[in-house]
Design a protein that fits this description.
single chain, 85 residues, alpha+beta, Arylsulfatase, C-terminal domain
Length: 85
């Protein structure tokens, strides 16, 4: 009834997806932008992506430092990009 929860990581040219049931997928977006060829059998590539995702999620789970103030120049640049008030 409900779709599996998935987590994904995109790095330089690669997309790594892991489902809640443990299924892993890996795609080379540079050579296969339609994601037709799953490279999950390539353990060398898969292991690196798995480690990156694990580290990213671990950092997210740890408390973050208090936000820093943003100077006027940075605030203007962010506003130009569509961020801010």
């Amino acid at each position: 009834m409900f779709a599996d929860e998935k987590r994904a990581l995109r790095t330089a040219g690669l997309k790594y997806i892991v489902s809640a049931n443990g299924k892993q997928e890996l795609y080379d977006l540079t050579n296969d932008p339609a994601e037709l060829r799953d490279l999950a059998a390539r353990e060398d590539l898969l292991a690196a992506q798995r480690t990156l995702l694990h580290n990213m999620l671990a950092r997210r789970a740890t408390p973050q430092a208090a936000p820093q103030t943003v100077d006027a120049t940075a605030r203007q640049r962010m506003h130009t990009l569509g961020y801010g008030e």
